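Help: read this over?
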Amino acid sequence: MSFRQRDYLLRMIEQLAEAIGRIAGLRRAGQLDEAELLVRTTADGLFGPMRDMLDRLDAAGASTLLGDGEKIGAYAALCAEQAEILELRGRAAQALAERRRALELYLEAVSRAPDGNPRAQEGARALLARVDAARLPERYRALAARLG
């Protein structure tokens, strides 16, 4: 990875961490419209015009399009925040589907990192407690089992 690519990824991670903190704060304050808007604008800022395509693809397809484990993990984190907002809005079925998508994305990020991806592993472990792993496709069940 070039210095320029690494610098971009570090900036992206910093922006994401700041945005996730703000989204969580808005969510806790009950400002769900603002939190959801910040999820969308953050995703648009990080992924540009491909964001709409990412939302239409399954986790494997979105991961292929993103390519890099850090980008996949960033997208997974935003999906996980969206799931929390949906839950608070009383849309439990949609929240569960989005949480499962976030888990699958985190597992894709883990699988693409030869040295491991601690942030993605942490995100996946947190979601495993809230998603029925037995309902995941076999590939993801196997990846989840390796996380312990």
